[in-house]
């Protein structure tokens, strides 16, 4: 195989394929691990708030990792941060192998939270590395010729490649949810995490030939450059914070517990539904450029697209909450249909977000800016995770959905002052149009 021990430098397309493949493997393990933890500890009688607490360090350390990981990637290269992320995830999985139902609750909680902290660091190192690498790869192969419908060929390629990576990643995460449920039923908790660790170790070997300097800044960034000074990226980061808080406030703990405890679904059915939801969400993300072209939108998207999709998304969780409150039909139908609509609109919004963060920055400082942006993303997930357990415990699924609508509304408000791409920031790509 060319990627394993072959001589010579990899082409831009080969680098993209290696990074994407590694990120796929990581995402599969991450999705499966999340579902394993939720189901295993729910079976042991943990409350939704206690289960949410198990992910506290996962999200908290993700915030720190995105901030410092971007600086590390800019200083030492993205290959190193990708390797570190995958190796840490293997370690986190292996640490969880001996977890037993016979352990005292306090010991289990502290132990799993520590393992989840390692996994949170691993997840965001890998994500920052993979998404930053795309900008570097596209920049190295950018053609100056104009693309169809406005924007350069490189800008269209950037939107397409970002959409494919982000969408396929989420599809694999959904498959991971489904795999987590099946693994738990077939092999138990310890056996399942051991299998995931072995599969991820194979994927790590496939990254051995990535260039050592991919993503490395020509001038070593100072530690004081951790915080982004771009108005566009700061505003987009705030919008991202609220957007992902709005998703996780019902998705992380409230939804699987609601489906199992209230609607009486089996674990494999819950895992299957959540897996299909994320797979469908990922497919829409990957298809975002094609969908926009089918609607006559041939130019790369600008801030107005984020504002439109955020405004539309605000109404969906509110309508689901009203349907549950008014008992319109079976609650399972309201949840499935409503969350399908949420997935489609959220996917379009998230895909454009992922493009804009790269369009607002340049290849040299991409890991710093992407790290800062995904720090906000991790912060939103942390907020949503904590609220998912607490709000569901005190108000049920309806309350989680109302909070989701509120957070999406705040994301929309945050996006209203996003500057146009052309001239939005001194380090932006020249020639981008809104």
SSE pattern, N- to C-terminal:
HHHHHHHHHHHHH
Count of distinct structural domains: 1
Number of E-state strands: 0
First-last Cα distance:
42 Å
What labels would you give this structure?
0% strand, 13 helices, disordered N terminus, disordered C terminus, Growth Hormone, Chain: A, mainly alpha
Give your account of this protein's structure.
The chain has 434 residues and is mainly alpha-helical. It has a single domain, classed as Growth Hormone, Chain: A, CATH 1.20.1250. 75% of the residues lie in helices and 0% in strands. The protein has 13 helices and no strands. It is globular and about 50 Å long. The N terminus and C terminus are likely disordered.
Task: Give a brief description.
With 434 residues, this protein is mostly helical. 75% of the residues lie in helices and 0% in strands. The radius of gyration is 21 Å and the shape is globular.
What is this structure's SSE topology?
Elements: H1 12-43, H2 48-54, H3 56-76, H4 78-96, H5 105-140, H6 153-205, H7 231-251, H8 254-262, H9 267-286, H10 288-294, H11 303-325, H12 331-359, H13 366-415
């Amino acid at each position: 195989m060319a990627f394993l021990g072959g001589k010579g430098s990899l082409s831009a397309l080969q680098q993209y394929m290696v990074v994407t493949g590694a990120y796929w493997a990581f995402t599969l393990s991450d999705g499966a691990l999340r579902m394993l933890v939720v189901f295993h500890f729910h079976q042991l009688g943990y409350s939704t708030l206690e289960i949410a607490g198990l992910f506290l360090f996962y999200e908290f350390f993700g915030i720190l990792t995105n901030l410092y990981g971007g600086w590390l990637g800019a200083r030492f290269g993205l290959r190193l941060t990708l390797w570190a992320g995958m190796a840490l995830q293997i370690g986190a999985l292996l640490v969880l192998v001996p977890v037993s139902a016979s352990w005292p609750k306090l010991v289990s909680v502290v132990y799993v939270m520590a393992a989840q902290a390692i996994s949170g660091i691993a997840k965001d190192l890998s994500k920052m590395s993979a998404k930053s690498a795309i900008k570097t790869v596209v920049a190295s192969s950018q053609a100056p010729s104009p693309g169809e419908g406005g924007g350069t060929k490189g800008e269209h390629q950037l939107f397409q490649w970002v959409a494919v990576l982000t969408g396929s990643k989420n599809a694999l995460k959904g498959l991971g949810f489904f795999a987590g449920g099946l693994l738990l039923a077939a092999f138990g908790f310890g056996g399942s995490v051991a299998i995931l660790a072995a599969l991820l170790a194979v994927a790590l070997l496939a990254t051995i030939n990535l260039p050592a300097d991919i993503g490395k800044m020509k001038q070593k960034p100072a530690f004081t450059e951790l915080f982004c000074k771009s108005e566009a990226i700061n505003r987009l980061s705030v919008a991202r914070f609220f957007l992902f808080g709005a998703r996780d406030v019902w998705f992380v703990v409230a939804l699987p517990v609601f489906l199992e405890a209230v609607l009486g679904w089996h674990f494999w059915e819950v895992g299957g539904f959540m897996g299909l939801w994320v797979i469908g969400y990922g497919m829409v993300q990957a298809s975002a450029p094609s969908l926009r072209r089918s609607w006559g939108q041939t130019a790369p998207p600008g801030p107005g697209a984020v504002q439109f999709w955020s405004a539309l998304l605000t109404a969906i969780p509110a309508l689901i909450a009203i349907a549950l409150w008014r008992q319109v039909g079976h609650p399972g139908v309201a949840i499935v249909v409503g969350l399908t609509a949420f997935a489609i609109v959220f996917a379009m919004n998230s895909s454009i977000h992922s493009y804009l963060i790269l369009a607002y920055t340049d290849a040299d400082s991409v890991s710093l800016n992407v790290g800062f942006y995904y720090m906000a993303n991790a912060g939103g997930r942390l907020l949503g995770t904590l609220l998912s357990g607490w709000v569901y415990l005190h108000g049920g699924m309806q309350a989680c959905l109302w909070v989701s609508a509120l957070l999406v509304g705040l994301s929309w408000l945050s996006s209203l002052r996003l500057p146009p791409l052309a001239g939005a920031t001194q380090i932006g790509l020249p020639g981008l149009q809104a």
